[in-house]
Write a sequence for this structure.
């Protein structure tokens, strides 16, 4: 990427998007568990295709657009509130709403270890991409690298969920992350230049899987 991060910003970004950061992302699959249950994702190739679709046309694309909007408007309390409300309204299911809201609240609480006025500008109910975008901007993390890190963390979490659900092994999971790297960079670069007019998706099966997960009797994940 053409944009550079200074060392302090890089360290903060690594901390915030680390699996060790206390947001509880490991508890969610974003509907993937239901997709596996229904046979929509059967193996590593299927999981890779599923994630690529989410990045190009689904929830991860919309998250990236919301992230970019929050990044631009981190000093605008009214703008952040409106973006947060839109992000929550776009949640396609009760579980998707719960997931993005729970992660957003947990992220804001954990990020308070790095005090900044942006924390007071964020509304109490804030979706995950909005809070990460706003806090990244407030701490001087440039947009495209921040987006790439956010999307990579989301994809990594899904790969980890896929391994736990038995559709991929560890080696296949690492290969998947390597193979999807270029797409993550492409989407991050493109999303960093978007406006809210670029919101929209066509990953219908993923949305249906998220809805159906709400009534799944036996499950490992909360979404």
């Amino acid at each position: 990427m053409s944009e550079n991060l200074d060392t302090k910003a890089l360290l903060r970004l690594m901390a915030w998007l680390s699996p060790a950061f206390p947001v509880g992302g490991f508890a969610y699959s974003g509907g993937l568990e239901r997709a596996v249950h229904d046979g929509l994702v059967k193996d590593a190739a299927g999981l890779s295709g599923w994630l690529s679709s989410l990045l190009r046309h689904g929830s991860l694309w919309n998250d990236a657009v919301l992230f970019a909007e929050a990044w631009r408007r981190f000093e605008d309390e009214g703008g952040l509130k409106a973006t947060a409300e839109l992000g929550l309204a776009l949640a396609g299911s009760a579980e998707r709403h719960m997931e993005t809201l729970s992660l957003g609240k947990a992220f804001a609480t954990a990020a308070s270890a790095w005090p900044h006025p942006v924390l007071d500008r964020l509304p109490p109910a804030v979706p995950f991409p909005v809070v990460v975008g706003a806090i990244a901007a407030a701490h001087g993390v440039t947009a495209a690298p921040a987006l790439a890190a956010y999307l990579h963390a989301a994809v990594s979490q899904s790969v980890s969920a896929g391994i736990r659900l038995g559709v991929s092994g560890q080696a296949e999971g690492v290969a998947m992350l390597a193979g999807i790297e270029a797409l993550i960079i492409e989407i991050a670069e493109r999303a960093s230049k978007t406006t809210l007019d670029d919101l929209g998706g066509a990953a219908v099966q993923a949305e249906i899987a998220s809805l159906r997960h709400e009534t799944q009797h036996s499950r490992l994940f909360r979404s």
